[in-house]
Backbone:
C-alpha cells in the first residue's frame, strides 16, 4: 500500500512540476537510432523503487509503453531506464524521484535519428557477356553488410521508342535488339531501413551484338593477341590511338576502364580465367570479345 501511495504521489507531483524540472540530472545519449535502445541514469533516490520515469510528456507512461517517438523498455521505476527509438523525431524524458531532501523532477531532451543507409551502390553497368543479343545489367560496388540477397531491386528500362520494361532480379539479363536500344535505366534498391535510386543515361544506347558483329567484321576489326595470354595483350589495327578498352572479369567487375591501347594492356596480376573486353572509339564503334588469362 505504501509503494502504491508513493507512486500515486510521484505521478501527481510530476504532473505539476515538469515545467520546473532540472535539465542537468539525467545522463544519457542525446540521440538514439531507430530500433536501438539506450540507457538513461538518474541520481540515487531514497529507495530502489522511488523513481517514476515518463516519456514525451505523458505523466502516466509506464513499463514497456510507447509514446510517440520512443518506448520504455522494461520498468520505469528504477535508477536507470531503457529507452528505445521507434520513430525519427524529438523525444523527452521526465523523471520524478524521492531522496532524503524531498521530491525532485528532472527533464531530458534528445532526438531519435534514422539508421545509416546500408546501400552503397552508386553506378549502373552493362556487359554483353556472350557476344549475343543479351545484355547483363548490374550495380557496383557490392553491398556493405547482409549480402545482396537481403535487398529488393526494381529495374526500369526505357527504350529508344519510348517503351519500357521492368525486372526485379538483382542482375537482369535481357535481350535488346539494336533496332530499339535501351537509352535510359533506373534501379531502385530497397533494404529494411532505406532505399536508393540510381539512374544511367546511355549514349547512344545499349543493345546486344548478335546482329551487329557482322557489320563490325565488314568494316574494321582490331586484332587482339596473344589469346590466351599470361600477361600482356597487344592490339593490331589502324589508328590505335583513337581507341579505348575496358576489361571485365567473369563477375562483371570492370578491372580496366577506358584505357589507351597503343602500347598494349597488362593483365599479369589478374587471376586465371575468362575476361571480356570492349573496344570503343569516339565515332561509336564498338568491338567486344573474350580474353583467356592463363
Residues:
Amino acid at each position: 500500500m505504501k509503494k502504491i501511495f508513493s507512486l500515486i504521489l510521484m505521478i501527481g507531483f510530476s504532473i505539476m512540476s515538469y515545467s520546473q524540472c532540472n535539465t542537468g540530472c539525467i545522463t544519457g545519449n542525446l540521440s538514439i537510432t531507430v530500433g536501438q535502445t539506450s540507457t538513461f541514469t538518474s541520481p540515487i533516490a531514497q529507495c530502489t523503487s522511488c523513481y517514476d520515469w515518463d516519456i514525451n510528456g505523458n505523466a502516466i507512461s509506464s513499463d514497456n509503453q510507447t509514446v510517440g517517438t520512443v518506448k520504455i523498455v522494461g520498468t520505469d521505476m528504477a535508477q536507470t531506464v531503457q529507452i528505445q527509438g521507434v520513430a525519427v523525431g524529438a523525444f523527452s524524458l521526465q523523471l520524478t524521484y524521492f531522496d532524503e531532501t524531498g521530491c525532485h523532477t528532472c527533464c531530458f531532451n534528445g532526438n531519435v535519428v534514422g539508421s545509416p543507409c546500408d546501400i552503397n551502390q552508386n553506378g549502373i553497368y552493362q556487359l554483353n557477356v556472350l557476344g549475343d543479343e543479351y545484355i547483363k545489367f548490374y550495380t557496383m560496388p557490392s553491398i556493405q553488410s547482409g549480402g545482396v540477397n537481403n535487398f529488393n531491386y526494381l529495374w526500369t528500362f526505357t527504350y529508344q521508342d519510348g517503351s519500357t520494361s521492368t525486372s526485379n532480379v538483382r542482375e537482369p539479363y535481357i535481350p535488346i535488339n539494336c533496332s530499339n536500344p535501351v537509352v535510359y535505366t533506373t534501379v531502385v534498391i530497397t533494404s529494411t531501413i532505406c532505399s536508393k535510386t540510381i539512374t544511367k543515361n546511355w549514349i547512344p544506347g545499349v543493345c546486344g551484338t548478335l546482329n551487329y558483329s557482322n557489320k563490325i567484321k565488314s568494316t574494321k576489326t582490331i586484332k587482339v593477341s596473344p589469346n590466351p595470354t599470361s600477361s600482356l595483350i597487344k592490339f593490331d589495327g589502324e589508328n590505335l590511338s583513337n581507341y579505348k578498352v575496358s576489361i571485365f572479369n567473369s563477375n562483371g567487375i570492370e578491372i580496366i576502364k577506358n584505357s589507351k591501347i597503343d602500347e598494349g594492356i597488362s593483365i599479369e596480376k589478374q587471376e586465371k580465367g575468362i575476361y571480356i573486353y570492349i573496344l570503343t572509339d569516339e565515332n561509336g564503334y564498338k568491338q567486344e570479345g573474350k580474353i583467356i588469362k592463363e
Summary: The chain has two helices and 22 strands.
